[in-house]
From TrEMBL:
The CBS domain, residue ranges: 6-31
SUPFAM superfamilies, alphabetized: CBS-domain pair
A Pfam match: CBS
Gene3D superfamilies xref list: CBS-domain (3.10.580.10)
Protein name: CBS domain-containing protein
Organism: Natribaculum luteum
Superkingdom, taxonomy of origin: Archaea
Amino acid sequence: MEEVKREHSVQHLPVVDDDEIVGILTTTNLAH
């Protein structure tokens, strides 16, 4: 179970990171 979760986490991490980075960049640009 843990191994499967880790694999799914690794696959989802890039997508989540991209969304978070875009959101942070957009928020930062709007703030500044």
